[in-house]
Amino acid sequence: MSPLPKVEPARTSKQKLEDDKRRHALDTLQLVTGVGAVKARNLVTAGCTSIADMRKPEYYSTLTEAQKIGLRFVGQIPEPVTREQAETVLDFIRENISSKFEVHLGGSYRRGAPVSGDMDVILFHPTHVHVPTPNISHSSAFSNRKITGTSPLSSKSGSRMTKAEREASPLIKDVVQPLTQGGLIAATLSTGARKWQGVVRLPEKDKDGQWELMSERVKLVEADKGFFRRMDLNLVPWKSRGAAMLALTGDIEFNKDIRLKAGQLGMHLNEFGLWRWQSNEPEEPEANAEEAQQEGSWELMEADTEEDILAELGVDWIEPTKRNFAYVVGKPTKKKATTVKGKSKER
User: Fold this and answer.
1) Average pLDDT over residues 72-96
2) What percent of the chain lies above the pLDDT cut of 70?
3) 16-72: which CATH architecture?
4) pTM for the complete prediction?
5) 99-120 pLDDT, tens per residue?
6) pLDDT at position 140, please?
7) What is the pLDDT of residue 157?
């Protein structure tokens, strides 16, 4: 005869109340950007059950720098950014950095969305010209598992820059520093030679249409007064304008789709350009050549304009507002292009 199933005792009213309090505390702590379920659970177990508790030294000291910034601006940075707010920030940036910079808004804004989760600012400068070659092997470039819709510009490895690299970076010295001194940038989440991520205070104008005084803006940032939102700054090589606008407009599914198309045509597409592998191997490789690492280099095919890149891939021009996976799936394409010695032809 099998044993009877174990019957769990019914929870008492007190236990139910304690469980409800714990769930409420977990939900509350996760309102802080950067605090996930695991961190929230650890904090609650330690006795931290509210936003006010998180500011106590014994709990605050356990937070990462990003979580501390999330706590500082709790209830602010998760808020969506309207198109008007994004345009105001864009105007402020253009007026407070060198006019030699070409500045655009990407992401959901360029795709026509009424609101965005953050602001993706794309910057080009005529002296920033170095185009990095793909840091990926020939075989890996054409593996579907390696193709994503995200951009390496999002890497936070740049936060480990040396002091010399930081001082030499045009993004830091010519963009981030002036915008910090001007009272726009409020906090930095990560910094790299090509990408900055952080929090900005939305600039305001008086009744005469003039920006607030710089000194006043700085004081308001220090006092955490105003409206704060997330922003990314992306510095891209001048020659890579087209590739960058494609990558930083998105969406992720659209980017993945056109990168897969590039792979199918024997090319590699990233935020710096459309590339083709030029092999140094003999025309008749050995039997096991596919298993070996191919010798060769990446050649930049197209990068200047979105139109040229899409045309090289055999894809008709797609308006930024229609760049999503659902649209791409139903859109007819031209005959696929092949490239022979730098010239494209249809097949």
Assistant:
1) 96
2) 80
3) Orthogonal Bundle (1.10)
4) 0.83
5) 999 999 999 999 999 999 999 9
6) 65
7) 37
pLDDT higher than threshold 70 for residue 293 = no
Q: How many CB atoms lie within 10 A of CB 142?
A: 19
Amino acid present at 39:
K
HEC sequence for the chain: CCCCCCCCCCCCHHHHHHHHHHHHHHHHHCCCCCCCHHHHHHHHHHCCCCHHHHCCHHHHCCCCHHHHHHHHCCCCCCCCEEHHHHHHHHHHHHHHCCCCCEEEECHHHHCCCCEECCEEEEEECCCCCCCCCCCCCHHHHCCHHHCCCCCHHHCCHHHHCCHHHHHHCHHHHHHHHHHHHCCCEEEEEEECCCEEEEEEECCCECCCCCECCHHHHHHHHHCCCCCEEEEEEEEECHHHHHHHHHHHHCCHHHHHHHHHHHHHCCEEEECCEEEEEEECCCCCCCCCCCCCCCCEEEEEEECCCHHHHHHHCCCCCCCHHHCCHHHHHHCCCCCCEEEECCEEEEC
Q: What is the rounded CA–CA span in Å between residue 124 and residue 102?
A: 5
Q: Would you list the domain boundaries of the chain?
A: 16-72, 81-239, 243-282+294-346
The correct answer on CATH 3.30.70.1250 for the domain covering 81-239 is no
Report the alpha-carbon distance of residue 136 to residue 71 in Å, rounded.
38
